[in-house]
């Protein structure tokens, strides 16, 4: 079935809302805003955040903006499961490539159920190359990527994929985009489109509210982080090798 379009945006972000509204209306695409969680005001979902575990891996806590961002996407995933409909989830600083985005939105109902989450932008890592084309129809091409895309600017999500992300998100230790990238853990495969449908609008500053320069890492944190990243790299490699063999 055709996906609904949801734009995550703070209720006070009027300029951003106007910009994304103009883009979607020009394509004659219906959409709704989801009022994002303001991290500075707190939220009941922040109880999912495990600060103690986070500080074993990083020198600082997640910022209120990062927590608010995670909570906003988490709530949209819940809506996706409850509705039973796939979604195209956009953040309000998405800059759409009009023709490509409209084509994806109009052809998305052709996507098979096994494609539970598809990133609609180019990976932030240039070395993150696609492993295999997994779907093609009417000019719409979807690829399996070897690593995560490191952003949540825009993505397609099915209820089955949302349910897996919710289960994985019972404990937060890092920003939502990095949690979504851990496909070998939660089982929501990392797919993307080529060419991309959108990018991040550089005309807007980030509203996440990063804390600036991070404190120096303790030796124990550095060692723990290195071991963790090595284990994750091996797990990701193993997962991708199994994918190739399927």
Integer-rounded radius of gyration: 18 Å
Parts with pLDDT < 50 across at least 5 consecutive residues = none
Mean pLDDT: 92
- Structural class by SSE content: alpha/beta
Strand order within the widest sheet? 2-1-3-8-5-9-7-6
- Bin the helical content: 25-40%
Termini separation: 27 Å
Per CATH, which architecture? Alpha-Beta Complex
CATH class: Alpha Beta
Number of domains: 1
What is the number of helical segments per DSSP (H or I, 4+ residues)? 8
What is shown here, in short?
The protein is an alpha/beta fold and 246 residues long. The chain is built from eight helices and ten strands. Strand 1, helix 1 and strand 2 form a beta-alpha-beta unit.
Structural commentary:
With 246 residues, this protein is of the alpha/beta class. The protein has a single domain (4-245), classed as Spore Coat Polysaccharide Biosynthesis Protein SpsA, Chain A (Alpha-Beta Complex), CATH 3.90.550. The protein is built from 8 helices and 10 strands. It has helices spanning 14-26, 51-57, 64-83, 98-107, 159-168, 176-180, 183-186, 219-245; strands spanning 4-9, 32-35, 87-91, 94-96, 117-119, 130-137, 140-145, 154-157, 191-193, 198-200. α3 crosses α5 (159-168). The protein is globular and about 55 Å long. The protein starts with a strand and ends with a helix. The mean pLDDT is 92.
